[in-house]
């Protein structure tokens, strides 16, 4: 797991300012993703535990959005460059460098985990461990929102992402992994973003029982 994470960290450290500028609008041009994050925040608030982690937070744009939606949100990211940018851009919020397979969060502490396209660089064989770690930190009834690139094929597809290699997933296959991690998938949204890659944008909600 270390090799690909080292490559991912280095790749994102090298594009911090560009990446931050590209996502400065915080999904204003992505109504489907924005709607799912709004639904996620509403459901997390309803659990009575508003503490939520934005895992793979990048420059912190969605951590700030979750905060505005009423959550006690904090950001975690593998890239020290991204964490540094997030801290400077949003000093009122908490950001920390962390690996996704070893989150610095106690068992059952969170009402929500957002993983917005943050697991796309993980090789398929390593994804179950990351999902199990996200399930570990959720309280009973807590919510996980995973956003990823979807494909109609039977297997994950590796492709050349603009930053570092990534994978698209059959939605049913990823939902099965979420269930194997101890969560109950209960809602999904798929749409065609008319991207040059030809993948679907996919959003999957799961709940800790």
Largest sheet: number of strands, sense, barrel closure = 7 strands, mixed
Tally of separate helices: 7
Q: Give the topology string: H per helix, E per strand.
A: HHHEHEHEEHEEEHEE
CA(first)-CA(last) distance: 28 Å
Strand order of the largest sheet: 3-2-1-4-5-9-8
Summing up helix and strand content along with how strands pair, one would put the structural category as alpha/beta
Rg, nearest Å: 16 Å
Which spans have pLDDT < 50 for at least 5 consecutive residues?
A: none
- Spatial shape: globular
Strand content: 25-35%
Approximate helicity band: 25-40%
**Total number of beta strands:** 9
Q: pLDDT average, as an integer?
A: 90
Structural account:
The longest helix is centred in the first third of the chain and has 16 residues, at 31-46. This protein has helices spanning 2-13, 16-22, 31-46, 61-68, 80-89, 127-137, 171-180, and strands at 51-55, 72-77, 95-97, 110-116, 138-150, 157-159, 166-168, 183-191, 200-208. With 209 residues, the protein is α/β, with parallel strands linked by helices. Helix content is 35%, strand content 28%.
């Amino acid at each position: 797991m270390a090799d690909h994470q080292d490559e991912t960290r280095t790749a994102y450290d090298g594009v911090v300012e560009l990446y931050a500028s590209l996502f400065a609008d915080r999904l204003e041009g992505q109504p489907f993703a924005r709607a799912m994050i709004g639904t996620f925040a509403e459901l997390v608030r309803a659990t009575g535990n508003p503490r939520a982690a934005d895992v793979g937070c990048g420059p912190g744009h969605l951590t700030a959005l979750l905060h505005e939606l009423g959550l006690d949100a904090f950001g975690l990211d593998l890239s020290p460059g991204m964490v540094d940018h997030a801290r400077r851009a949003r000093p009122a919020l908490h950001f920390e460098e962390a690996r996704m397979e070893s989150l610095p969060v106690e068992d059952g502490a969170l009402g929500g985990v957002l993983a917005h396209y943050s697991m796309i660089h993980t090789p398929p064989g390593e994804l179950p461990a990351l999902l199990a770690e996200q399930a570990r930190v959720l309280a009973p009834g807590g919510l996980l929102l995973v956003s990823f690139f979807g494909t109609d094929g039977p297997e994950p597809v590796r492709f050349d992402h603009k930053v570092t290699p990534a994978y698209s997933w059959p939605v049913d296959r990823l939902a099965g992994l979420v269930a194997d991690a101890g969560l109950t998938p209960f809602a999904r949204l798929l749409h065609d973003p008319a991207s040059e890659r030809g993948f679907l944008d996919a959003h999957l909600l799961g709940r800790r029982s």
